[in-house]
Amino acid sequence: MKVTVNVTCAVFVYLVYCDVGLANYSLECPEISHWKIRAGGVCNITDKYHCLYDPNIEKFTEFCDSPKDYTAGYKAVHSGNIDGYLCPANRYMPFNLKSNMTKGCIYAKSKCNDEGQLVYHNRSLAEDVSCMCDFLNGYAFIQKPKNVCFCEPSMEDCSCYKKQCDETEILSPDYGCITYKLVKTQPLDSHKFQCHSCQDRTLPETSDRMTSVSPSLSVISSTCIETVPCNIRTLVAQFILIMMMVLIAVILYISIILFISGCWNEDEGNKQNYTSNKIRQTVETNEKNSTELAKTPVDDNLTVGAREQNTTRILKQHIENSIKVADYFIINCEHYTILQFFDGVKLQGKFERKPRILDMCFVEIHNDIHLVYIDADNRSIVVRVFAIDIEPRTETFTHEPNRLAKIDDTTVGVIYKKELHIVIFDVCKMERLFSYSIAQDSIVECDGGIQGILALSRTELILSDKIHLYRCKLDEPKEKAEVSNFAASFKEKFDTARRLTHVTVFKGGWQSVIFVADENDKKLTSIGQEENFIDDHTGQNRGLQNVRAIGATEQRVYAATSAGISVFRHEKGLFKKIDDADYKMLVDYEKHVEHTRGLCIHLDKDYIYIALSCVIKHDDVVLVFKFKPNNTFK
Fold first, then answer.
1. What are the CA-CA distances from residue 408 to residues 124, 280, 363, 380, 453 (Å)?
2. How far apart are CA 210 and CA 77, in angstroms?
3. Could you tell me which of 301, 298, 348, 342 has the C-alpha nearest to residue 323?
4. Residue 275 above 50 pLDDT?
5. Torsions phi, psi of 621, nearest 5?
6. Which site among 242, 296, 555, 559 is 20 to 30 Å from 257 CA-CA?
């Protein structure tokens, strides 16, 4: 009996050790309500007391340090310094907090697993899951939620019920009964419902990389959570806990049976070996089953066969049309680094149509550089972290987007094709903030809608209809846009002035210099913020051949043309020569590139980042590289 007790105790100790190790939990970390009491015995200043998880030693640790702020979607950890770490997939942090106020992400995510419920979207670690009802199986909300398409379980009742429709009707994505004749010949996606016919069941993903937390993050009002693979460590811990409890029960049961039958004293060593062998076989069997379960693919898509065929087709096409960067692009500077190359397959991703990327910009969020672009054919805006190979975040527009302009690192302005509307979009929360409609009489001669947009600030834009420029001032509280002529004296100067950029220079004070590229006239024009003409650069050459996009720094203007990327030098808007030449080619196309789409630049410390989009073999591609601005050209 003593041996049984010893074995049982050993297994229990092993169980506790495994569970603690896998769950990353420490019994020594006090409850939050006891932190101030504990702080008196650890730190001289109670506000400096912390009890945070240390990924280096894989357990919680107590220490004294000045508290730091970290943003929604993150928790504080201690790895030499106080750093930020993404919340696990099953929890979320909806607001900014100081590192000495909690040891982890406060709230548990809802599961949307009650009768008739499905996950509508779960794409942020700064907010709870949103639920929808399974309309395909006849379920609708009992109580109408604030948003007709989805419900927030932490804020409202998301219960679903089986809604009865007539025999000739089915339930639509808007949870209304519609006549079956309307949909029997066409898929639901082809109808204009307010809600999507196919819910987004993408889960937020967490990253193992550390992101430094800065005290300046306290002023950040929004957060961006990246999409990475789901963490299953908690499930593994629970599985091992259950299996170990089963083993303990088996050991106790065998011990009792042997004791009652009087066989306990007969060949005790052999019985121990027998019991140990049975335990080992059970563990091996469970591990084998666990491994097989882990290898089993899981697919939320209802049409698995169609998805596999589509994936095979895309991979085959990808192999046949694979593109080598060196075959198409020659970068003419001494030192550069290619950071990423997105081919057509990677850009298309889960979209049904091939992408058509019309405009791009860089934004910097949580010390990571993101590439933001609009995909016209899929009516979407896309945000990618190009340094990490993870799924991008996307949002669909009601109309086809045409151009975008970066306002700041969290916000962009978007214009629709052949429309007089401006949408202000938050690229962190992936949602529309404001929508402005411009009266037709404000832009009298604009038949094709707004075709160029430039953001000077959050409330001041420059618009173009190809021939004329307009100053647009946004009134956010009233959601109104006041439009007036900009540089009216330039009326005869432009033919197709759709490509705009600007840079801030010091000329008796800080002011913006606006650069306008005229595609047909092959001309660059610089204009002062006060609508004063500065300079023209005209040339019938490769440097200004079919300019599709431009970007500017304090000394240079970069133009994406049908020949590659050209560079022009300027001093406060006045164009100068580069090494006795009007321009230099930073990038030359080596092989045939069918079309140049767009360009964006970003200055970060000692480097300039450039993204170039173009069409190769009928597919849009994006090249991202960086180089030092003081490099001389070859």
1. 21, 60, 7, 20, 14
2. 9
3. 342
4. no
5. -135, 160
6. 242
Residue 363 burial (CB count, 10 A): 22
Asked if residue 569 lies in contact with residue 591, where contact means CB atoms within 8 angstroms, the answer is no
Residue 573, Cβ density class (10 Å: 0-12 exposed, 13-18 middle, ≥19 buried): buried
Q: Is 488 a residue whose pLDDT tops 50?
A: yes
- Residue 444 identity (one-letter amino acid): V
Positive or negative torsion for Cα 157, 162, 168, 170: positive
Closest to 217 measured CA to CA, from 428, 457, 433: 428
**Local confidence band at 48 (pLDDT 50, 70, 90 cut-offs):** confident
CA-based nearest residue to 107, from 90, 119, 132: 90
Cβ(328)–Cβ(321) under 8 Å? no
Beta bridge partners of residue 253, listed in sequence order = none
- Rounded to 10 degrees, what is the CA torsion of 418, 424, 427, 431? -90
**562 or 25, higher pLDDT:** 562
Distance CA 278, CA 566 (A): 74
197 by DSSP, 3-state: which? coil
Residue 197 and residue 182: Cα distance in Å, rounded? 15
- Torsion (CA) 542, 543, 547, 552 in degrees, nearest 10: 170
Separation of alpha carbons 41 and 54, rounded Å: 21
Confidence of residue 215 (pLDDT cuts 50, 70, 90): very low
Amino acid identity at 426:
D
pLDDT per residue over 489-537, tens digit each? 776 678 888 889 999 887 777 888 999 998 888 889 999 878 888 888 8
Q: Using the 8-state DSSP alphabet, how is residue 151 labeled? A: B
Summary mean pLDDT of the chain: 76
Nearest Cα residue to 287 out of 275, 276, 298, 279: 279
Return the H-helix or E-strand segment holding 280.
helix 268-295
124 Cβ contact list (under 8 Å, min separation 6) = 73, 92, 204, 223, 225, 429
Which residues, other chains included, contact 119 with Cβ-Cβ below 8 Å and sequence gap of 6+?
112, 129, 130, 131, 132, 199, 201, 203
State whether the Cα torsion 179-184-190-196 is positive or negative. positive
**What's the token pair of residue 410?**
């969290």
Amino acid at 85: Y
Tokens 């070996």 found at: 273
- On whether the CB atoms of residues 122 and 203 are closer than 8 A, the answer is yes
CB 135 within 8 A of CB 171: yes
pLDDT confidence bin for 223, thresholds 50/70/90: very low
Q: Which two tokens stand for residue 439?
A: 């009266």
Q: Which amino acid is at 249?
A: A
Task: Tell me the C-alpha distance between 88 and 523, whole Å.
Answer: 53
Task: Check if the beta carbon of residue 565 is closer than 8 Å to that of residue 505.
Answer: no
Q: What is the spatial distance between Cα 558 and Cα 538, in angstroms, rounded to a whole number? A: 15
Contact 557, 515 (CB under 8 A): yes
